[in-house]
Amino acid sequence: MIAGWRERGLTRAVVVEPARAAIAGLGLPASIAVVDDAAAVPGDFTPDVVVLAVKPQVMDAVVPPYRRFAEAGAPIVSIAAGKTLAYLGRQLGERAAVIRVMPNLPASIGRGISVAVANAHTPAAGRDLAEALLSACGEVAWVEDEALLDAVTALSGGGPAYVFLLVEALAEAGIACGLPPALARRLARVTVAGSGELIRESTEDVATLRQNVTSPGGTTLEALKVLMAADGIQPIFARALAAATRRSRELSGS
Predict the structure, then answer these.
(1) In 3-state terms, the chain is what percent helix, strand and coil (to 5)?
(2) Domain 159-252, classified CATH 3.40.50.150, yes or no
(3) 3-state DSSP call for residue 42?
(4) Angle between the 159-176 and 181-201 helix axes, to the nearest 10 degrees?
(5) CA-based Rg of the chain, rounded to a whole angstrom?
(6) CATH code of domain 2-144
(7) What is the DSSP letter of 75?
(8) Model's pTM, two decimal places?
(9) 70 and 97 in contact (C-beta within 8 Å)?
(10) Which of 69, 123, 223, 226 has the highest CB neighbour number within 10 Å of its CB?
(11) pLDDT tens digit sequence for 136-192
């Protein structure tokens, strides 16, 4: 995220990161300070926005020191899964402007998508600032109903893992058909990566792209008859995302 913000012109910030090795390779300029904890943030620093990019398991310990910034009017952007707007409001103050975000792994290369929801105390300027920050990592979408973030977590949050599993499954199926393992894994990896890039570049919907690859009476059609059968891939994904959505609700206490 920091790398993306630098490319967008970020010149002054304070990064709270006890594990210095995690950002050692970013080559941050001297105007971006790095400190070990929130107590070390310079007293005269007044942030326009605070981004909490930590694991949900440590939020109880991490969040309280940032209350002073929220009380001074800085919007707080949290990407901790399962930590609700209500939870953050209790930690940061009932009038705090809070934005909860669910990004996904491709944000690390600027190709992610982040879905955000803001509480009622967040002004339009706060939303605009959050969108500018998040767009450095990919696309941004907003929802008004926080409950939708559970399904967002299931689909786009976990989505990269499902795609990686698809690559593994394709490779194993290729090996079962007689391909050398190294070639099967290479074919699966490059095919999925290239198909994703084609989706990104194309103006056609994915159903049309699929149909364009499927010749009548050809080999692809035979495979799709299996994948699109009543017991094929769609009901499996439906069950998988339903399970992930339930787990997200359990973790958030909703």
Answers:
(1) 55, 10, 30
(2) no
(3) coil
(4) 140
(5) 22
(6) 3.40.50.720
(7) -
(8) 0.88
(9) yes
(10) 69
(11) 999 999 999 999 999 999 999 999 999 999 999 999 999 999 999 999 999 999 999
